[in-house]
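Re: that backbone. Tokens:
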């Protein structure tokens, strides 16, 4: 038997437990009261960071959702990508809005543009305190978010395996 000692790499889209980091500088773990939460990261100090190995199959726009809890609204995270040479680039900074308690959980979403490739995803804490249970990086596939979508129909419904999708788009030229 050969044991795979390589670090785990998450292929996007993915839901990633905060505690499944590849490297943690400064955060502490605690029991999480959220449904299926396992552990959450907490006790953030400025300059703490969490690293996750990710693989981004396609360049483009994604939705990043943080499952967070915080008594305050002072949390700010710099989202960075590190390449194989260890050089990190800031992609975006996001703020964490207070949820009313350290174990009061809400999902907070942001749109993010990511390049294709294998990277170290780093959440670098700029300020404040916040707890993270998990985060998700998803494709922006929600039908409701398609710009200019006027009519949308799926039939037959219910379907026995095959179904048709009809959509009408409005092209806004202004
Ligand atoms: Ca968790």
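Recovered sequence:
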């Amino acid at each position: 038997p050969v044991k795979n000692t390589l670090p785990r790499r998450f292929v996007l889209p993915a839901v990633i437990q905060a505690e499944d980091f590849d490297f943690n500088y400064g955060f502490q773990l605690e029991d999480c009261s959220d449904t299926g939460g396992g552990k959450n990261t907490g006790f953030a100090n400025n300059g703490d960071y969490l690293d996750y190995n990710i693989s981004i199959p396609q360049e483009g726009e994604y939705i990043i959702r943080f499952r967070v809890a915080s008594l305050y609204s002072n949390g700010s995270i710099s989202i960075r990508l590190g390449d194989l040479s260890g050089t990190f680039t800031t992609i975006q900074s996001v703020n964490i809005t207070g949820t009313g308690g350290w174990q009061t959980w809400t999902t907070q979403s942001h749109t993010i543009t990511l390049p294709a490739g294998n990277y170290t995803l780093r959440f670098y804490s700029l300020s404040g305190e916040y707890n993270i249970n998990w985060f998700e990086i998803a494709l922006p596939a929600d039908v409701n978010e398609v710009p200019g979508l006027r009519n949308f129909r799926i039939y037959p419904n219910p379907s026995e395996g095959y179904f048709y999708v009809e959509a009408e788009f409005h092209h806004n030229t202004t």
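The chain has a mean pLDDT of 91. The two ends are 63 Å apart (CA to CA).
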